[in-house]
């Protein structure tokens, strides 16, 4: 590990997790660019421009200090009424999870709402979202790699309790994988 600031390791996941987490946004809603955190440098890189004529249906990023079987931090989609820029930290209230398989690998996407946005923070569970929002998310993830000849299957949407369990498991895996290797100061926490 390098001794420089890295958003994945040096920003707190939030002290109210798994119900409210800090999310770091890599991709603003409406983007056709697939941006992602460069794990070594901590900078944001353009992975690719989406091949398909689709755009991200919500702000997309990750929950810091989490780790999944795909060797990445846990993904999160945050619904918000304003555009959230790249690398913005946003407090997100977890309302559910979209379980999908991306090229034969499980790839869960936590679904959340911006905790401090009154236009969406009244949603407490994914079942309360307008059905079209879920259809849009499903359609985007099933289509966004189609022209690259890669298959993504959205298996199901599940509620917040299932999402909490997935977050807890990703925290545990992060601690098992990284905690012993890091002797850094306390992570950055929003006040």
Supply the key terms.
191 residues, alpha+beta, 5-stranded mixed beta barrel, 3 helices, 9 strands, 19% helix, globular, Inorganic pyrophosphatase, metal-binding, magnesium
Largest sheet: 5 strands, mixed, barrel
Provide the helix percentage. Answer: 10-25%
> What structural category characterises the helix and strand content?
alpha+beta
Number of helices: 3
How would you spell out the order of helices and strands? HEEEEEEEEHEH
Strand order of the largest sheet: 1-4-5-8-6
Overall 3D form: globular
- In percent terms, what proportion of residues is strand? 25-35%
How many β-strands, per DSSP?
A: 9
What separation lies between the terminal Cα atoms? Answer: 27 Å
Low-confidence stretches: none
Mean pLDDT: 91
CA radius of gyration: 16 Å
Concise synopsis of the structure shown:
With 191 residues, the chain is an alpha+beta fold. It has helices at residues 7-10, 131-143, 160-178; strands at residues 20-27, 33-37, 44-49, 59-62, 75-79, 89-102, 105-106, 109-114, 152-159.
Task: Describe the protein.
A five-stranded mixed beta barrel has the order 1-4-5-8-6. The chain has a two-stranded antiparallel ribbon with strand order 2-3. The radius of gyration is 16 Å and the shape is globular. It has helices spanning 7-10, 131-143, 160-178, and strands spanning 20-27, 33-37, 44-49, 59-62, 75-79, 89-102, 105-106, 109-114, 152-159. The protein is built from three helices and nine strands, in the order αββββββββαβα. With 191 residues, the chain is of the alpha+beta class. Substrate binds at residues 34, 48, 60, 144.
């Amino acid at each position: 590990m390098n001794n420089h600031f890295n958003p994945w390791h040096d920003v707190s996941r939030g002290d109210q997790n798994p119900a409210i987490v800090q999310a770091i946004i890599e991709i603003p809603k409406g983007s056709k660019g697939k941006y992602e955190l460069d794990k070594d440098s901590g900078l944001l890189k353009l992975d690719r421009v989406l091949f398909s004529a689709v755009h991200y249906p919500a702000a997309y990023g990750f929950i810091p200090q989490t780790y999944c079987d795909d060797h990445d931090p846990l993904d999160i989609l945050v619904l918000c009424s304003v555009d959230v820029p790249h690398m913005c930290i946003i407090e997100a209230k977890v309302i559910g999870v979209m379980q999908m398989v991306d090229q034969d690998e499980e790839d869960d996407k936590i679904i959340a709402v911006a905790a401090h946005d009154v236009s969406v923070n009244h949603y407490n569970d994914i079942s309360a979202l307008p059905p079209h929002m879920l259809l849009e998310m499903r359609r985007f993830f099933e289509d966004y790699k189609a022209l690259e000849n890669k298959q993504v299957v959205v298996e199901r949407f599940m509620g917040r309790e299932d999402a909490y369990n997935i977050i807890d498991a990703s925290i545990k895996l992060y601690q098992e994988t990284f905690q012993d290797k890091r002797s850094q100061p306390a992570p950055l926490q929003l006040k």
